[in-house]
From TrEMBL:
Gene3D superfamilies: CAP, LysM domain. PANTHER family: SCP DOMAIN-CONTAINING PROTEIN. The lineage of its organism: Bacteria, Bacillati, Chloroflexota, Anaerolineae, Anaerolineales. The keyword Signal applies. Pfam families: CAP, LysM. The chain crosses the membrane at residues 280-300. This is LysM domain-containing protein. Residues 243-265 are annotated as: Disordered. CDD domains: CAP_bacterial, LysM. Keywords: Membrane, Signal, Transmembrane, Transmembrane helix.
């Protein structure tokens, strides 16, 4: 009986050990070209022409994926039309672009396109006939998380002919170069103000998110256009300086000292009674006459 148990136990333990030591099979991250191929398959299935791969859009999509991977944040940077136009797409024409992103572990290109981008807004590159060009970027971070970005775009006059070309290097004056630097918040100054210096690739949207302020407030503080395009090196007021509130100086109210009302030397009953006033008048007249007689008498005696 003991040998029978060992006969089944030993192979079972060996099998469990092999399963534990066997390498785990993980889904391989899809490439940028795989993303584009799947998008074009859906477009052609909808009766639309395949999107044309544009080197500028490839560069902007890849730069966006690298920015997200370096910051560890899976979020749109914002103003994708302005960013691809600043990189040279469209040659100065009015640009219309859309951006799809997806981030996750062990995500294949099929899962990204067919699952993550299955809603109407993400399906625009596959269902909207206006889009002509496409670019994609894929970056796998050190923690194994993969960042996917798709840029689809067209511009006014695209039907007249546009030759995809590599993005220009060394160009100056571009509002958003290919290199996109994540927003690093600054320390408030002594007066409480916060001034952010715009770095390549940063948008008003991403700066507002980083500082936790409303983009409308950022636009108002800096008197920007409703859809602002920022320039590298531009100073943005994120928070104005504190304006001290002056306390009003209290005004002293003068204290009025009451002036005593003079009291009449005669009772009011005498002043108000005509008969008594008459008698008073005669009395005063007699007193005055007597006083005058005394003065005259004293004067006559002095002459003797």
């Amino acid at each position: 009986m003991r040998h029978a148990i060992l006969r089944f136990l030993i192979p079972g333990l060996l099998l469990l050990g092999w399963l534990a030591s066997a390498p785990q099979v993980q889904a391989q991250a899809g490439s940028a070209q795989a993303i584009i191929d799947l998008v074009n398959q859906i477009r052609t299935a909808n009766g639309l022409p395949a999107l044309i791969v544009d080197p500028i859009l490839m560069a902007t999509a890849q730069a966006t994926a690298e920015t997200m991977a370096s910051s560890g944040i899976c979020a749109h940077i914002g103003n994708v039309s302005g960013r691809v136009a600043a990189a040279g797409y469209g040659g100065g024409a009015t640009v219309f672009a859309t951006e799809n992103i997806s981030c996750g572990y062990n995500r294949t290109a099929e899962q990204v396109v067919y699952q993550d981008w299955a809603d109407a807004s993400h399906m625009l590159p596959m269902t909207n006939a206006n889009y002509v060009h496409v670019g994609a970027g894929v970056v796998q971070a050190s923690d194994g998380r993969t960042y996917y970005v798709l840029h689809a775009a067209y511009f006014a006059g695209a039907a007249s002919g546009y030759t995809p070309r590599a993005p220009a290097t060394g160009a100056t004056g571009a509002s958003t170069p290919q290199i996109i630097i994540p927003v690093q918040t600054v320390t408030p100054q002594a007066d409480g103000s916060m001034i952010h210096k715009v770095q390549p690739g940063q948008s008003a949207w991403s700066i507002a998110i980083a500082y936790g302020v409303k983009i409308a407030d950022l636009i108002a503080l800096n008197r920007l256009a409703p859809t602002p395009i920022l320039w590298a090196g531009q100073d943005l007021i994120v928070r104005p300086s504190f304006t001290p509130t002056l306390s009003p100086t209290p005004t002293r109210t003068p204290t009025l000292t009451p002036t005593p009302t003079p009291r009449p030397w005669l009772p009011a009953s005498v002043l108000n009674d005509p008969d008594q006033r008459h008698n008073l008048g005669w009395g005063l007249l007699i007193i005055s006459a007597l006083g005058l007689a005394v003065v005259i008498g004293s004067s006559l005696r002095g002459r003797k």
